[in-house]
Amino acid sequence: MKKILVLLMSICMIVFLAGCGNDSSKTADSAKPSTSEKITVQAAASLKGALTELADTYKKDHHLADDQIAINFAGSGTLRQQIEQGAPASLFISADEKNMKMLQEKDLVTDVKPFVTNELVLVVPKGQPQISLDQITTVKRIVLGNPETVPAGNYGKQVLTKMGIWDQVEPNVVYAKDVKAVTASISQGAGDAGFIYKTDAIAAGDAVQIAAVTPADSHDPVIYPIGIIKKYDNALAKDFYQYVMSDEGKKVLEKYGFSTEK
């Protein structure tokens, strides 16, 4: 009887150890990176907060190293030029449709879809007197992203042109490299008013205040398209593309003030 009892205990111990071994194996497998591939994302500067959070979450969930998803934030026109010159990027998210269409015409991108939308606002330094759009001719320093490379700057120029005052205010315009630089100039008091996106005004917190929301018919729709760059396409690029477009991705984008309704 004792021999049988010892035998049964031995069998139970073996089964238990085997089970522990399987659990350890599963844990080890789950901690493995889902891929060894790397990608670079070219993204409009206004997406910095939202896209950084999305990338960090994705890398954590898939056990990726920090350098497996790199993001280059800048003005959309600058990013588009870099892609045309062969920059090793897998995804492009532009703050306007114009720059994406230029890449489509050269057959450099695929799977282009609307990503998010935004609003253009006029901001002033926190604590400064509020002004309306109609009063912008009295502003001494109007900060604007370079309209040639920064969509927000182009939208701002469209607003001033629609109002019929561009030629009058152009001598007072100070150009910045991207919308983040515009926001910084206003928050630091280096400019008296500037055109930025609503999302950047939200991100700036108490540093700036919104003086006016530009009318929707005063400029082109602020639509951000996303596309995969053909030359550097891979499985990671496709999966991250799907992730940022997912319901989970939309929740993060909406948290930062973007609209995901297309």
TrEMBL record:
Family: Belongs to the bacterial solute-binding protein ModA family.
Domain of life: Bacteria
Key words, A-Z: Metal-binding, Molybdenum, Signal
Highest classification ranks of the organism: Bacteria, Bacillati, Bacillota, Negativicutes, Veillonellales
Gene3D superfamilies: Periplasmic binding protein-like II (3.40.190.10)
BP-aspect Gene Ontology terms: molybdate ion transport
UniProt-listed PANTHER family: MOLYBDATE-BINDING PERIPLASMIC PROTEIN (PTHR30632), SULFATE-BINDING PROTEIN (PTHR30632:SF0)
GO molecular function: metal ion binding; molybdate ion binding; tungstate binding
Signal peptide (from-to): 1-18
Protein known as: Molybdate ABC transporter substrate-binding protein
Binding of molybdate, residues: S46, S76, A152, V179, Y197
Keyword Signal: yes
Record gene name: modA
